[in-house]
Automatic annotation (TrEMBL):
Biased composition (Basic and acidic residues): 119-129
Cellular component, GO, one term: cytosolic small ribosomal subunit
Occurrences of domain Sigma 54 modulation/S30EA ribosomal protein C-terminal (ranges): 139-194
InterPro entries reported in the protein's UniProt record: HPF/YfiA_ribosome-assoc (IPR050574), RHF-like (IPR036567), Ribosom_S30AE_C (IPR032528), Ribosom_S30AE_C_sf (IPR038416)
Protein name (Swiss-Prot/TrEMBL): Sigma 54 modulation/S30EA ribosomal protein C-terminal domain-containing protein
Origin superkingdom: Bacteria
Region (Disordered): 106-136
Cited Gene3D superfamilies: Ribosome hibernation promotion factor-like (3.30.160.100), Sigma 54 modulation/S30EA ribosomal protein, C-terminal domain (3.30.505.50)
One Gene Ontology MF term: ribosomal small subunit binding
Entries under Pfam families matching the protein: Ribosom_S30AE_C (PF16321)
Organism for this UniProt entry: Mycobacterium kansasii
A single GO BP: negative regulation of translational elongation
Amino acid sequence: MRHETELPRDIEVDVTTRGDLPGAADYARAKIGQLGRLAHRPVLRARVRVTEHRDPAVERPVVAQGNLDVDGRLVRAQAQGETAQETIDLLESRLRHRLERIAEHWESRRGEQPAAGPHEWRHESEPSHRPSYFPRPADERRVIRRKSFTMAPCTVDEAALEMNLLDYDFHLFTEIGTASAGVLYRGGPTGYRLALVARCPPISSVRSSST
């Protein structure tokens, strides 16, 4: 029996707007929602925020931010424009480009490692799903906002890919070949600059002798 592969459907997009932006939410849902057809992996969550600045001195008063959770990997983009439609179109174009980049990255990594066996974990394996909270009684709970960052080991190319996917101007990471802390940032003729923290050599003991 022949089975046809189901094509990816449009994704549901959580859109929030701030300012006088009539029709912007519906347009963003339709425009960004179509990107699900390009994703080679499931889009677990999609969020878009469109904001209008009220300062008349701002040339491009509309800002749109988009975040896609593509099978656990965050893809982010931001755009500015004179109108909501123009800004959302630009945001869609940037997210589309990042989805194409991440698809190429996943495709190039296919076949690099065999599937992990039972009770075997590899760096590419899906992490175990454990609750990230303690089941405290409801009357003892409180909300605490906290941000943390882990300098994951990776190559310089992988750091550049991650920085572009997240639309950041710099990226902190641990260079996997030397285990040195590094920062990749935009600049120079190639568009990237790299700074690595040199590791201190081990201090050898010095034995003094009296003469």
